[in-house]
Amino acid sequence: YPSEFLMQKITEDNQIPVHLDVSVSLQYVAGLKGSALVEFFHGNIAEVENEELRHLMWSAVLFYKTPNVEVMACVLLSTKAIYFLLDDSFIHADEHQSDFWNKENSDCENSSFHLSCCFVLKLNDLQSVNVGLFDQYFRITGHSADHIVTCLTRDSYNTHTFIQQLMAVLSLLARTPSPEPVDKDFYSEFGSKNTGKMENYELIHSSRVKFIYPNEEEIGDLAFLVAEKMDGLTNLQSLNILLYVLVFQVNHIEGSAQNTSLLQPKTLILTSSDLFLFDEDYISYPLPEFAKEPPKRDKYQLADGRRIRDLDRVLMGYQTYPQALTFVFDDVQNQDLMQNLTLDHFGE
């Protein structure tokens, strides 16, 4: 340990997404290659001497306790735990640690010594993994509110790779076998299924960790929600969600010294007639078992919606991934004007 293939793979994966800014401490981690990266893991992060680093991924993360603070993290999967090496901005956002940060490390900017915050979720404490729509994100759930983290990969390949690696590592865990299932009679087997609501597709791993995938109803619920936002659409059957993708909305900051832009996380939904941007709650749904009350906000909140027929042009940047798209719409004051003219002239 480790094999040449693993060393090469971890080195290749150790790249910060180019569009996101991170602290000096995480830039240092991203600069490590091969054996230096493995030594860094064992010397600074690993809690047990004989654990092995199996996978590395850079991702934005959300915590259940701070659902509005999206922070960049280096996610390290070992044979014992999942480690989230967090950006310094998270420590500043955390009220409990801000006093310690300001008092003890006020001169850290001028020194070569930088701190990062590391959140550890032991694999033995892992209870379930919820995979988001179209593998754009996944939520890891432990035994309390402190142990719920969502990784916003915004990339189905990264999500799929991490889930596969996690399943492989969980297979190594020695857990006590589940008790033998009680034989159910015919009536109890089918009598409990009359709730009228289809359960999400669940895969229970041999380690007893649940992997929960969205079912068809979730898309149906989303289509219904979108239909509510669309004026004059009476036939829900004709509404098709063509695309669901997690994106950033770019807001340029006027008057700043540098030409900076603010990236706001959004969910983009494209139908055959409209383009929508939603603010989505990626961490609170589905409700954890210990939740006493529903979340303060809905899962989907409409931020913007435009008709495709009003789309004038699409501007594409020629830089590498991630691609920048600019949608230019013709904003007609009375949106129904064209529709009414069409009906008056060509309708009965």
UniProtKB/TrEMBL annotation:
<dbReference type="Pfam" id="PF23142">
    <property type="entry name" value="PH_PLEKHM2"/>
</dbReference>
<protein>
    <submittedName>
        <fullName>Nischarin</fullName>
    </submittedName>
</protein>
<feature type="domain" description="Nischarin C-terminal PH">
    <location>
        <begin position="241"/>
        <end position="347"/>
    </location>
</feature>
<dbReference type="GO" id="GO:0032880">
    <property type="term" value="P:regulation of protein localization"/>
</dbReference>
<dbReference type="GO" id="GO:0010008">
    <property type="term" value="C:endosome membrane"/>
</dbReference>
<feature type="domain" description="PLEKHM2 PH">
    <location>
        <begin position="114"/>
        <end position="178"/>
    </location>
</feature>
<dbReference type="InterPro" id="IPR053015">
    <property type="entry name" value="PH_domain-containing_M2"/>
</dbReference>
<dbReference type="InterPro" id="IPR057714">
    <property type="entry name" value="PH_NISCH_C"/>
</dbReference>
<dbReference type="GO" id="GO:0019894">
    <property type="term" value="F:kinesin binding"/>
</dbReference>
<keyword id="KW-0963">Cytoplasm</keyword>
<dbReference type="GO" id="GO:0032418">
    <property type="term" value="P:lysosome localization"/>
</dbReference>
<dbReference type="GO" id="GO:0007030">
    <property type="term" value="P:Golgi organization"/>
</dbReference>
<dbReference type="Pfam" id="PF25625">
    <property type="entry name" value="PH_NISCH_C"/>
</dbReference>
<dbReference type="InterPro" id="IPR057288">
    <property type="entry name" value="PH_PLEKHM2"/>
</dbReference>
